[in-house]
Design brief:
By secondary structure, this protein is an alpha/beta fold. 41% of the residues lie in helices and 22% in strands. The strands form two sheets. It has a seven-stranded mixed sheet, sandwiched between helices. Helix 3 packs parallel to helix 4. The chain starts with a strand and ends with a strand.
Length: 283
């Protein structure tokens, strides 16, 4: 089945990196890529009562600039060479990036969002701390795959999947992780970080569900004793030079405990390896 992938862009070199990474990752898959630029108008606030309308010079100039940027982006892609199984579409939307992405995902039934972890300014506090984290936390209808600015595509040596074994796993929630593991031949390292001596009966049942979901893939289980999940995850991935992380984003729970802004600012870890945020669709 053809995939529909949304790539938000601000025309920065980092956003371009996400385009190239996506094309390489899915080079053998049928994909419709949607390139989205959310534009604003100088001197106008998006939440102001006075919003420029189509036909007004401020609005039309900003929209023209956005559409020109998208046209140039298509030309860059054409120079690289577009595989026959890939198609590209563009859209300019007057909106904040998060709202534009959420609406487009819903309207077009997008399968995945792939975005750069940094934007036009490369300011980790304002860009990585807002757009990227917001995409992963608040775009709930599909997975969000964050590509670090400096990452050139290569098939990951392994995908680390941290879990508490307390989630009721479903195949449809894990199918994008399954696909990436399959097409890159990357084994999945299922990591449990905790202080308990052994899993509870409920955790054992959930572990069995996960094994069913990953049937046909190469995967292994790993256990670390640590009171802090983020510390254990960091130690595990750094010691093994793991090249990708995937996790289920349980709203206001697992996400906040691992991928919080202080974690990003302190370690800069998420900006160095691709991170796939999946979703517990019952949230």
């Amino acid at each position: 089945m053809k995939k529909k992938i949304l790539i938000p862009t601000d025309f920065s070199k980092n956003a371009w990196n996400a385009v190239r990474f996506s094309s390489e990752l899915y080079k053998n898959e049928e994909v419709d890529f949607f390139l989205l630029n959310a534009f604003t108008v100088n001197n106008f606030s998006l939440d102001s009562m006075m919003v420029p309308e189509p036909g007004e010079k401020w609005f039309d100039d900003a929209k023209s600039h956005s559409e020109l940027g998208l046209k140039k982006l298509l030309q860059q892609i054409a120079i690289l060479g577009v595989p026959s199984n890939h198609r590209y579409f563009t859209k300019a939307i007057f909106s904040a990036p998060l709202e534009a992405v959420k609406k487009f995902v819903e309207d077009k039934d997008i399968d995945m969002v792939i975005a750069s972890s940094k934007g036009e300014t490369d300011d980790i506090d304002t860009i990585l701390g807002t757009n990227s984290i917001d995409f992963m936390e608040k775009v709930r209808n599909c997975p969000v795959f964050m590509i670090p600015a400096e990452a050139s595509f290569k098939e990951p040596n392994e995908i680390v999947f941290p879990t508490s074994f307390k989630t009721h796993y479903k195949r449809r929630e894990l199918n994008h992780l399954y696909d990436i593991s399959k097409i890159t031949n990357a084994p999945i390292r299922i990591l449990h970080v905790g202080s308990e001596d052994e899993l509870s009966q409920n955790q054992k049942e959930k572990k069995g569900l996960l094994e069913e979901c990953f049937e046909g893939l190469t995967y292994t289980f790993h256990f670390l004793e640590s009171a802090e999940v983020q510390t254990g995850l960091n130690l595990f991935t750094q010691s093994r030079n793991s090249e990708m992380i995937a996790f289920i984003n349980k709203k206001h729970g697992f996400f906040g405990s691992i991928f919080s802004k202080p974690m990003v600012k302190e370690l800069g870890f998420n900006a160095k390896v691709p991170v796939l945020a999946l979703h517990d669709l019952r949230n």
